Amino acid sequence: MRKTLILALLLIGGNALYAQQAPEKTRLLLILDCSNSMWDHWQSNAKIKVTQQVLLSFLDSVSRQHDVDVALRVFGHLNRNQIGTRLEVPFGEDNIYQLQSKIKTLVPNGGCTAAAALTDALSDFPAGGDTRNIILIVTDGVGGLSAEICYVARQVQLSGVVVQTFVLGIGGGEFDNADCAGTFLSVPHEEDYSRTLYDIFRLAGKTARVVVRMLNGDGALFEAEHPIAFYDRRTGVSRLNTIYSVDNTLTPDTLLLDPLMTYDLTVFTHPPLCREAMQFGIDRVNTVDLTVSEGSLCVRFGGRRPQWQQSAVDAIVRLPRGERVAAQEIGEVGQYLAGRYDVEVQTLPVTTLRGVEVRGGALTNLEVPMPGMLVLSKPKGITTGAIFKLNDGNVEFTTDLNPSTAGERLLLQPGEYELVLHPQDATLYNKVQTRRFVIESSQTTKIQF
């Protein structure tokens, strides 16, 4: 069971290997708000004028970075009768002068939303290549961030094309939907504009080194392998799936993650172990320590083995509040976090063992009685029926009978039962036939009507 899960996550988590290598190039798509509100006065000048000054200086710096490409999409600058967005400068080498020229000539002219621009943004990134694609939305938030952007931003993240979306909110406006649109950075004052923009740029091409260490109760390194997943806390989208492991020197793997994202971590133990709201820096090795106390659980049939061939029987392990943790076959050893569980063995009827304790570093053995065999020969004609287990005056429904067969062979847990048969052509209550019988472990009980 554990090996199958590990193999499945390796197959679906192809981005794990990609995340271990820094991409050769970063593509930054600027989405610039040019709606009418950008004419509003900020501290020293109109928002659009301040933005033009900051972006022109920023692009001068970018021009010296050969591993960064920039493109420009603008919304709100088209004429009032054409509410839309346009890719003004596509990605390409040596396009900085073209970008600066376009930014200088931008005139806020109408209304549009960032959601419309973001909808078209995926097609702006060239296909293929080892790149890290990032979107930066610059907006004053006045009407630009509609509720629709939450849905659009999630679709962008799910596409896998874009690594991260950032929203730079300038001018101290209202940014009601900014958090769901991307990683939101507020710029209420002009003097913070350039610094915030450069902070994003400085980290955009960087990766954070992260080491996950699983420790047992004694503080020693936990050597077992477990699938792990890092999720973007804002969107819930998985960013890295891999297998936790240690090498022969007991050194855990070093993972490379985006330093601008906030992560939730899930370790797929049984039940899963979670750590929330983690951020990682670029100037150090970030260590995530998790204490894992894990034990083993095995369910077996007790008693003499029967002469017939036994079919596979599952045991479902649940938390006391009912949540399913895992399923394992009878005789299989499963690994679980230390704690108490309810175990439902899928016998007929189901055998439930409540409050089973799993202790860290120990094996918990459970035993259920070996079932017996019921060989049933039914009367002629189609009949329906059911079997009930009798428990101190109470009855427990066990199974329905198959009305289309003349005989059945059923494995039942030891105990006293009642069989109820109802011929299809019977119209009176007294035509219903009942028979009580006892099932003994590993023994065959025959009933013939």
Task: Please explain how this structure is put together.
The chain contains 8 helices and 27 strands. It has helices at residues 2-12, 15-19, 47-62, 96-105, 114-121, 148-159, 178-181, 193-204; strands at 25-33, 68-75, 85-89, 131-139, 164-170, 183-187, 208-215, 226-232, 238-244, 254-257, 263-267, 273-278, 285-291, 294-302, 314-318, 324-329, 333-337, 339-345, 351-358, 363-369, 372-377, 383-391, 394-400, 407-412, 415-423, 433-439, 444-448. α3 (47-62) runs antiparallel to α4 (96-105). By secondary structure, the protein is an alpha/beta fold. The strands form 7 sheets. It has a 6-stranded mixed sheet with strand order 3-2-1-4-5-6. It has a 4-stranded antiparallel sheet with strand order 9-8-11-12. A 4-stranded antiparallel sheet has the order 16-15-18-19, with no helix packed on it. It has 4 domains: 23-204, Rossmann fold, CATH 3.40.50.410; 207-291, Carboxypeptidase-like, regulatory domain (Immunoglobulin-like, Sandwich), CATH 2.60.40; 294-369, Immunoglobulin-like (Sandwich), CATH 2.60.40; 372-448, Immunoglobulin-like (Sandwich). Mean pLDDT is 85; it is low at 1-20.
